[in-house]
Design goal:
Blueprint lengths: L4 H16 L13 E4 L8 H5 L7 E4 L7 H15 L2 E5 L2 H6 L4 E4 L6 H8 L4 E6 L13 E4 L16 H10 L5 E4 L17 E4 L1 H7 L2
Helix pairs in contact: 1-7
Length: 213
């Protein structure tokens, strides 16, 4: 599969990271190199981006309890199936089971849920947000962390100070499972992640712009 321009840069960098990190979680699950995070405000029609994503990547569908969550989720499920793309749901276990998602992305505050979820849904890919050091908390059951914001970000992360590539690298070096970088990553700075042990790239607007043709 070949892409051009920004899409090629992001996908090529994500693939390089995944290969270097072996692309496999502690539970044996294959990790998608690229995670597209949806946002109801910034990505109102996420299926239009999902249909153009590289085969083997993933969508993290964050519905934020919207009334049309199930309808949009089912539409995404159908598009992802056709594109060969995995579909994760943000936080909502019920929605994930309803739309037959491939996994769940947990907010940092819900990290402890991973142990139970991994037993109940062993086939699910389980990721969790992280905004700083793990500080001794258990990551049992998780396949990967999504550490943010690496660089200055928009959306809900706008108010958070960016970690910078050095602190990001230090944090993920201490984690018991692979970690993606999220936040302010775009084609012009994505190569900086190659100096770290990140397993892939996660994003919202940069992926939307690159693959929203």
């Amino acid at each position: 599969m070949s892409f051009s321009g920004d899409a090629d840069i992001l996908w090529g960098t994500a693939l390089a990271l995944a290969r270097r990190a072996c692309g496999v979680s502690p539970r044996g699950h294959a990790l998608p190199p690229l995670l597209f995070f949806t946002d109801p405000d910034r990505t109102p029609e996420p299926w239009k981006i999902a249909q153009n994503l590289p085969q083997g990547s993933a969508v993290v569908y964050r519905a934020f309890s919207r009334a049309d969550a199930e309808a949009t989720g089912l539409k995404l499920r159908a598009v992802c199936d056709r594109a060969g793309v995995k579909l994760l749901v943000g936080k909502d276990e019920t929605l994930a089971t309803t739309i037959k998602a491939d996994g769940l992305h947990l907010p940092e505050i819900d990290m402890a849920r991973a142990k139970h979820l991994a037993k109940q849904y062993p086939h699910w890919l389980l990721t969790c947000a992280l905004h700083g050091p793990l500080d001794g908390r258990s990551a049992t059951g998780l396949d990967a962390f999504v550490v943010s914001p690496v660089f200055r970000a928009g959306g809900a992360s706008r108010a958070k100070p960016d970690l910078g590539i050095e602190l990001f690298s230090q944090i993920i070096d201490t984690l018991p499972c692979p970690a993606y970088g999220l936040g302010g990553i775009h084609p012009a700075n994505a190569a900086q992640l190659l100096t770290t042990r990140a397993c892939g790239i996660a994003g919202v607007e940069s992926i939307m712009r690159a693959f929203g043709r």
